[in-house]
Amino acid sequence: MAAQRRTVTVITILFGVLLGCLGRSDDDPRLIDLTWTLKIGIPVHPIYPNYTFTIINRGVTGALGVYLESNEIYMSEHTGTHIDAPAHFAQGAWRLDQIPFGHLTGPGVMIDVRDKIGDNPDYPVTPQDLQDWEREYGRIPDGAILMLRTGWGEQFWEEGPAAYLGTDHTRNASLLHSPGLHPAAAQWIVDNRDVKAVGFDTISADPGDSTTYETHLILLPNNVLILENVAHLDEMPPTGSTVYAMPIKIGDGSGAPSRVFAIVDDRTSAGVTTTPNLIFIVTSVIMIILQAL
Amino acid sequence: MAAQRRTVTVITILFGVLLGCLGRSDDDPRLIDLTWTLKIGIPVHPIYPNYTFTIINRGVTGALGVYLESNEIYMSEHTGTHIDAPAHFAQGAWRLDQIPFGHLTGPGVMIDVRDKIGDNPDYPVTPQDLQDWEREYGRIPDGAILMLRTGWGEQFWEEGPAAYLGTDHTRNASLLHSPGLHPAAAQWIVDNRDVKAVGFDTISADPGDSTTYETHLILLPNNVLILENVAHLDEMPPTGSTVYAMPIKIGDGSGAPSRVFAIVDDRTSAGVTTTPNLIFIVTSVIMIILQAL
C-alpha cells in the first residue's frame, strides 16, 4: 500500500507541475480591431466637416530622388472611430490629454441589443436591457468598457452617410436616425456601476431623435468616456476581453480619432484558463483522501 | 513516520495550490504611454507642414444651448509620435491600413545607446551596439518592437523644433542633427533578426546628416515599420514589456499619428512570474525524496 500511495503521490505531483506549466503560457491572445478605416466620404455627424485626405507625394520626388508617399489630413476630432473626452460637453472636465492612461483600457463588455430594436431606428437602450445582459452574463465588472451592439455599423457604415445617419439630409442633425443609450440607462450606469467608457456602433451616444444630448450630458461630466463609430462589434465576445481605446494625444482636445481594439484571451473567455488549477486542486483533494484511507 | 509523511504531503500540496493561485493572477500590468502630446509648435520634419489645431466651439453654443468644446486638426501623417508604413518609401508595399493588426504589437526591447553617442549629434547606431545589448540581455526576441533610446526626446522635444532638430533652420532637411540607425545596422536587423518595428526618440530613423534615407530604404521594403518621435523611453525597461504601436487607421496612408504604449508585466520583467512554479517544482522534488526515504 505504501508503494501504491507513493506512486499516486508522484503521479499527482508531476501532473500538477505539468498543468501548472500549461496554465502559465500567455501566448497568442486574439486581437480584434474595432476601428473603421478613415477615408473620404465616411459618415460624420452633421455638425462636423467632412474628412479630408490630400495626397502630397506619390512617386519619385525630385528633392529626395527616391520613391516617396506622404499625405495630409484635415478633420474634426470627432471623426471616424473616436473618443469623446469629458470636456466635449462639460466645462472644466478632462480634456483628451488629461484622461488618465489607465482610463483608456478595461474589461470589455459587449451588449447585443439588436433584438430589442424592432422597427424603431431611434431605439433608446433601457436600464432593463442592461439588466437583462447582467442576468445572462453576470454583473458588469468594475472599470469596464461597455460596447452597445445595435447592428448599425455592420449594416450601414460602408453604405455611406445617408444610410448610417438615417437621412439623406446629412447636414441636418435634427433628421438623424440611429439607436442610442436612453438617458435613464446612462443615469443607471453612473449611479450603479463603475464603468470607464461606453461605446457605440452608431454616430452618437444619444438616440438619433434626441435634440438635447442628455446621454452625453450624463456620462461625460461623470468621467464616463464615449466611443462612437466603433467597428466590428460582431467579432467581440460578450465577456472575456480587454478593450483598449487609444486616441491620438491631441493637446486640449475635446476628443480624438482612436484605434480601438480588444484583446480576447480565448482561454479566459472559454473558461479554460482556470481549468488547470481546478483540475490540480481536485486531483490534490483526491490524493489527500487516498493518503488518508 | 506514515503520519509525518502524510503531513508533509498535505502541506506541500496546499503550498503548491496556493502558489499556483498566486502565479495565475494577471492583475495590474503597468502601462507606459510612449506618446508625445500633439500641440501647436511641436517639432516636425522640415518636409512636412506644421501641426494645426483650430478651436471651433468652446462655450455655450446657440445651436445646442449647452456647453460644447470641439476642435479641428490639420497635419501630415508623419506628425508627432507616428508610424511609417512600408509604402512611405516602397512602392506597392503595405499602406497604413494594410498593415496586419498583429504587426503593430510585439515584445518590447529598449536599447539605451546614450553612452555611445559621445559628442556626435548624428551618431549612427551600429550593428556592434545591437550586439552589445544582446550580450547583456539575450537575443532580440522574434516579432520584437525595438526602441532606440538616444536621449534626444527627453532632452530636446519640449524645447521645440530648433533644439530637437539640431538646427535653427527648421525648414532645411540638410541641416538636421540627431542620432539614428546606421544603414549597416538596419541591414543586420533585416538579415539576422525577426523584428516588426524599430522606434526612435528622434525625428527620423536615419541620422540627421543622412541625405539618402538609406535606413528607411532598408527597413520599410522589408516590412520593418518605423516609429518616430517616441516619448518617455526612460520609463521603458530593456526587456519584459509588450509594445503596442496603434496608429489611427488612415486609408491609403503612408503612415499615421499613433498612440504608442508599453505594457510591462512587472512580475515577468522582474523574473517573478515563474518563481511560484519553480518553488512548487523544488518543493515537490523535496517531497518526493522525503517520501522515498
UniProtKB/TrEMBL annotation, chains A, B:
Keyword Signal: yes
Annotated signal peptide: 1-23
Keywords noted in UniProt: Signal
InterPro entries in alphabetical order: KFase/CYL, KFase_sf
Keyword Signal: yes
Source superkingdom: Eukaryota
Gene Ontology biological process terms from the UniProt entry: L-tryptophan catabolic process to kynurenine
GO MF annotations in UniProt: arylformamidase activity
Family per similarity comment: Belongs to the Cyclase 1 superfamily.
UniProt name for this protein: Uncharacterized protein LOC109471504
